[in-house]
Design a protein that fits this description.
This protein is mainly beta and 84 residues long. It is built from one helix and seven strands. Strand 6 and strand 7 form a beta hairpin.
């Protein structure tokens, strides 16, 4: 599994990109417990920058209480979902 940081030419950034089996998994990390569609702007810019790549749904990791859709391609995910 490879890890990357991405800042497209337009200035929007993605905090972390994981690659597995030729598929990219973009992740944003937020400190705010209230996340919204605007928090996916870096994920959207990333998709536009790599239209020929296989990109999984984006995740915004934040101190939210439950997983929730933010856009048709992106989801808010609680930090503690990563802890067994």
């Amino acid at each position: 599994m490879e890890r990357y940081f991405e800042r497209p030419a337009g200035g929007a950034e993605v905090d972390l990109i994981l690659e597995r089996d030729n598929r990219l998994f973009p992740l944003e990390v937020k400190l705010a417990s209230a996340v919204a569609r605007r928090d996916t702007s870096g994920l959207s810019a990333f998709r536009k920058s790599y239209p020929r790549s296989q990109i999984a749904p984006g995740l915004v990791l934040a101190p939210v209480t439950e997983m929730a859709p933010l856009t048709e391609n992106d989801y808010a995910m609680p930090w503690n979902a990563l802890i067994p």
